Amino acid sequence: MALCSRNIVVAVVSALACARAAPSMKASRLSAAHRWPTPPPAVARAFASGLVALTLVAAPLVASADGEQFKIERGGASSSSEGFSSGAYKVITRGVNLDRSDFAGKNLKGVAFQQSIVRDAKFMGANLRGATFFDATLDGTDFTGADMTQANLELAQLNRAILKGTILREVYVVGNTLFEGVATIEDSDWTDTELRKDQRLYLCGLESAKGTNPKTGVDTRESLMCP
After folding, report:
1. Which of 109, 152, 191, 214 is the most exposed place for a label (fewest CB within 10 A)?
2. Cα gap 194→177, rounded to integer Å
């Protein structure tokens, strides 16, 4: 977008320069019939105003592109001009190191963190509905009170992860998703999450498999269908 804007500005500036230079061409090189006419004052003013307006429009686009690059360097290519500071954005990260990142309380609905390293990060109270952590490393990450409804945890590594009060409804865990080593699942809600039999038994056997989710009012062991 920024490159296109720059090209437009360059083209307009070039056209304006040609328009100004044309009347000064020698008559011997250009017949009167083909000579560039001097534009009327009103037309010249309108043209100049249009150029200024175009420059003002293009400038934010260049700044926005620089911002996109900044976000890419930080590990996220955002599809929203609001970016990281807004708390409501779309980010796609692939194979990025986001260790110790603080996303607590952020609106991360639909955000993709696939194949990224997100160890010891903070997602407390975050909206992670539909987010994907496919093949991500989430060791020690805190999801306390986060809403992970319909999130993708396939192949995710959750050693030491904190799932206290986390809503894990309809989470996609098919594949080699392993919950071995999670720090706690107290007060979590696993309603309609199709866990592998061995993983269900493992979670049900945890001392922290107890309590009731404060937001949904669902009992943890009941949502896990523990025996």
Report:
1. 214
2. 11
